[in-house]
Amino acid sequence: MKKVRPKDSLIVFLIVLLAYGYFFTGSDANTNSRLALVRAVVEQDRFEIDSFLNTSLPTGDRAYFHGHYYSDKAIGSSVFGVLPYVILLSGEDLLHRFLSILAFKELLTFLVVGIISAILAPLVYLFTKQVTESRWYALLITAGICLGTPYYVYSTMYYGHTLAGLFLFSAFYTWFEARAKDKINLVMTIGSGFFLGLAVITEYPTLLIVLLIGLYIAYILLKSSQLRNWKNPVLLVIGASIPIVVLMAYNYQIFKTPFALSYSHESSPDFASIQDSGLMGIHLPNPDVLFYMTFHTTMGIFWQSPILLFAFADWLNVRKNPRYLPESVLSFAVILLYFGMFSGYQIWWGGLAFTPRHLIPVLPFFSIPLALLQKRLQRWVSVPVLFSIGQMFIVTASSRDGLSSLTRSMHPFYRMFQNSTIYDVYFPNFLSRALSLNWGEEIFRLKGYESLIPLFMAEMLLIILFYVYNLGSPYEFFNNRRLTKK
User: Fold this and answer.
1) What is the DSSP secondary-structure string of 461-479?
2) Phi, psi (rounded to 5 degrees) for 435
3) What are phi and psi of 284, to 5 degrees?
4) Which of 349, 393, 417 is nearest to 153 (CA)?
5) pLDDT computed for residue 486 by the predictor
6) Residue 124 needs a FRET pair 20 to 30 A away by CA distance; which of 41, 174, 402, 426 works?
7) Is the pTM of this model over 0.85?
């Protein structure tokens, strides 16, 4: 097996990080709710967000309890924003410059969501490289997942979905490495538990995925004859308990009980009625909604990211690769059950969203079947990867003006081929040069399409660097091929 050199992963990380950090796709009630909690904690040393509701961070996504308003979101993304904001405020005092609300949103989004979410790239790369022993195929799959799915778009906004997806995949990859090396130690066990706990406090429904990863861990412990070793489950629980205790302390401070969630105190009567029905608004799976989420043209995930369809090629031939059967089964179970669960959610598309955004935490697990594709199928992946990246780039680079009118009511749903969030909203905006805020505009004062040039140039340089680092200079590469033929 070829060894992956650290610089490979660093270049891949920078390729994705640049794509995430280059754009700021705006804010809404969801992001304002999370950021309001950050400001309340740092500036006022409290959890109430009353001060920001009618001023800098207006939001209807809020909980109400005993005369005060609170963020109704899982606290994970806000927790990660506290330290960066403290540092930013320190710099503000040092430089005697006031940080505008737009700069606050942009910087926090990049420092928290952008940088952390981009860590998924080297993980997917390392996993795919280890399975296939191909650097270029690993780069292709990494780009397909990180830049060719809605994971890209939501890594430019202050949401929690991509962070949760990273934490879950990190826990999986930790145990995948343990199985490959047949080595389990204290640090990795506590660390993986910590990642699982972070996922739960960042997006509560990911508890389902945590349980499935728990079964995968139990399988690895069983095969290594360590299932009966009480230390492993105890260390996992200890790791997971650290973030969970933070959540419980937060809930107790506000609601006087560690087991209450902000969603149970929604200030909006309409949303409160949804949350009070079923399990936090989730009912039995709905086959019609499952179709809307996957294959319907309006916002079906497989239309938006066709590269994901190749996952079925591995799942349908899972027995042909017994070495990685546990990983294939885990990916299928995680994706199927999570899709099924959210098909029973009344607002399954997530409000002002171009895609079923609740599905984002499981998107990294598509990299598993894509990495395990048979060699004869891997050569066909390039085109759908590039098409997927192209569509997600249009969404990320374009204004979302007009999206609210399309997504205001999804019941009854649109007919097939009648609407598409990408081609009825984002693509027309892209053609009319209505772009999202980006570094080309802010730093280089470029307008329209010209503002995208610095991104393309920088990405091209990084890809060339990846090529040169792995294959040598173009002259050396082609000269070696000529000598080999002789």
Assistant:
1) HHHHHHHHHHH--HHHHHH
2) -105, 160
3) -65, 150
4) 393
5) 42
6) 426
7) yes
